[in-house]
Write a sequence for this structure.
């Protein structure tokens, strides 16, 4: 009986460790790889500017290079409204926590560039006016200026 109880405790503990939130994981990764964190608040199924932001910037090759070249760690805090698009409860809770910390006004889309400690370096309210290349270059420039 003790073995079964011990096994259950270990499984629960292991799951708890794996369920660390994305921001903490991103901070760790950003710190280890000298990266920045891009946190985007979106309403993927109701916010037209959010949908355009993802289509015209986040899903482009230019932006994907930022991730591949260890320039940014990307986090999307999504707030879908349609029942079929609802997120798992733990992800909803995490997104709400991120909004409490970084998006108290409830802006959509709202994009933040953070350092590895979670300090805001730049923010974009609404759909950025830049195209994907200009947006990516601006992030690269900010990262380059962070080097000592």
């Amino acid at each position: 009986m003790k073995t079964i109880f011990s096994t259950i405790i270990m499984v629960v503990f292991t799951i708890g460790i794996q369920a660390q939130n994305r921001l903490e994981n991103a901070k760790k990764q950003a710190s280890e790889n000298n990266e920045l964190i891009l946190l985007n608040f979106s309403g993927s199924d109701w916010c037209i500017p959010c949908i355009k932001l993802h289509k015209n910037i986040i899903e482009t090759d230019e932006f994907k290079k930022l991730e591949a070249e260890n320039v940014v760690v990307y986090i999307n805090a999504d707030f879908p409204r349609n029942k079929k698009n609802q997120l798992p409860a733990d992800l909803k809770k995490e997104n709400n926590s991120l909004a409490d910390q970084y998006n108290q006004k409830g802006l959509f889309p709202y994009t933040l560039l953070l350092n590895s400690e979670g300090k805001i370096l730049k923010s974009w309210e609404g759909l950025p006016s830049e195209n994907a290349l200009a947006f990516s270059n601006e992030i690269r420039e900010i990262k380059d200026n962070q080097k000592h």
The chain has one domain: 22-146.
